[in-house]
Amino acid sequence: MDYKTYIAQRVTAEGVSQEEIVEAIAVPPDPALGDYALPCFKFAKILRRPPAAIAAELAERYPTDGVVCEANAAGGYLNFRIDRTGLARETVRAVLSEREEYGASDVGKGKTVCIDYSSVNIAKPFHIGHLSTTVLGGALYRIYRFLGYTAVGINHLGDYGTQFGKLIAAYKRWGDRETVQRGGIHAINDLYVRFNNEANEEMEREAREYFRLIESGDKECNEIFSWFKELTLDYVKGIYEMLDIRFDSYASESFYIDKMGPIIDILREKGLLTESQGAQIVDLEAYGMPPFIVLRSDGASLYATRDLTAAFYRKQTYDFDKCLYVVAYQQNLHFKQLFKVIELMGEEWAKDLVHVAYGMVSLEDGAMATRKGRVVWLEDVIRRCVEKAQAVLMEKNPNLPDKEEVAKKVGVGAVIFGALYNNKIKDIVFSYDKALNFDGETSVYVQYTCARANSVLEKARAEGIVWSGETVPPCPQEFELIKRVADFPETVLSAARNYEPSIVARYLVDVAQRFNKFYIDCKIMAAEGDVRLFRLSLAEATLITLKNGLALLGIGVPEKM
Ligand code: ARG
Fold first, then answer.
1. Which of 21, 26, 209, 292 is deepest in the core (most CB within 10 A)?
2. Which domain holds residue 53?
3. Which atom of ligand 1 is nearest to the CA of 328?
């Protein structure tokens, strides 16, 4: 049962939505105050009364029952006490019967969410800067599916622009088939870097000519370019596999080239298009923004033009309820302009477009790397993290079976969790040591907690003990754990509402910490009778919850660690 929702449904405050109440309900820092609390400060403005008066009034009206047995006002807070045994029983039973489905729901049934994420550029390094969009988008994709939505993962590949003319020019000058085939994306990138280092006017002209040839459908140029695309995709797909990332569409920028016409026509018909220095633009001055350039003076389209066309295509193809763009905050203006233009075109669905912006990721030793002009390839970060994980595991548990498999789950998990743990808009500095700290706020800490729970359950099974959600009145440590386990469904909903997978990541660390306190203070196997069965049920419910949560982030759980 989801207690926050349960409580919220019985709070009646006119002008405040149910959702706002659920979102506001928190767990007081001191359990003596209550099990849940509704801070009323936020509502003072809407209800035009001081928070304390609101809390008092709501307390008066609140219908207590067998689940919520007390509702008391204290200052600006409305504190709730719930029937602890009831909560323990309901929660443990729900988790043990729903298992992999615990936390799932069908709130999204019949609704479609498009998620544009990762969206790499052909022939360019897949570097540490792509980590966030990839794992954030991947997590949102899984979260939405878990909530019953139809999620459409879209990799809006960057495969259009004059830089691809440069690439062909460089290949023609210095490249050979074998080296590129063998070196893949690295070899292609080397060619590109060399071209930029050595470029002169003659070469620039060549590049423009090759780009023109690609556009005009020249067979040879397009063959080379398709081959580069293929090599890039082969490479990134390897990384996607490691990170458990999936896409339903790889519709790239060039896919929209022959679809732009009708969209530009609409702009013209609606009188939105004006000419400025030969370029076709939508003037956004009235909205405090620079113009949205649709066609350059030479008639070429832009990144923005293709995004505009893609938005219409997606609406038509998927009839989405929401379309998310998981793209760095450097593109804030681009998306503000894009959404504004669609709104000005009179499309009511402009309101369903969301830029899920995130901050930068850099490496602890990244400053050095950039000074040397090196890019940090994401693959290298993952590999190094897996190697380090293996070393740490070796030291901790030299007899661990399947060390390599475990190290992979731990290492990959650490990279994902490192990128997802903080509020997405923050810039983060990735540190291998911090990410692999067994005692930190890390995935390895959560995974280790799972292994711990797993081992106690195995031991009990080996002794022939059978449990199935038996419940006794919980002690404080048990209660602190179980009520947090009960929060999982609401946590997942909140992560989706806020486009914020870190809500799940932080939740998992909290549950793991509570489990470990319970594990140490309440000896599971030393207890007897129903107390022991309850504790085993609780341990299993915790394990299921942690596993489900990690799975949403794309992180696997080793049986043993
Ligand atoms: N390829 C772009 C980049 O690397 C990101 C594309 C994001 N998606 C979009 N529809 N604009 O900056």
1. 292
2. 3-82
3. 12
> 394-403 burial string, b = 16+ CB within 10 Å, else e?
eeeeeeeeeb
Domains contained in the chain, number: 3
Ligand 1 site, residue 311, Cβ cutoff 6 A: no
| CB 155 near ligand 1, within 6 Å | no
* Residues 450 and 547 sit within 8 Å (Cβ to Cβ): yes
Contact 119 CB / ligand 1 (< 6 Å): yes
Which CATH number is 403's domain given? 1.10.730.10
Per-residue exposure over 451-462, b if at least 16 CB sit within 10 Å of its own CB, e if not: bbbbebbeebee
Give the residue, out of 132, 152, 156, 256, with the most ligand 1 atoms within 8 A of its beta carbon, to mutate for a pocket test. Answer: 156
Report the CATH number that the domain containing residue 40 is assigned in CATH. Answer: 3.30.1360.70
Is 76 domain-assigned? yes
The pLDDT value given to residue 1:
60
For ligand 1, say whether the CB of 255 is within 6 Å of any of its atoms: no
pTM here is 0.92
Cβ distance 432 to 382 under 8 Å? no
Q: Is 159 in the pocket of ligand 1 (CB under 6 A)?
A: no
Shared domain for 216 and 77, answered yes or no, is: no
Please tell me the distance from the alpha carbon of residue 333 to that of residue 293, in angstroms, as a whole number. 13
pLDDT in tens, 111-134: 999 999 999 999 888 988 899 999
Residue 158 Cβ < 6 Å to ligand 1: yes
* % of residues, the chain, pLDDT over 70: 98
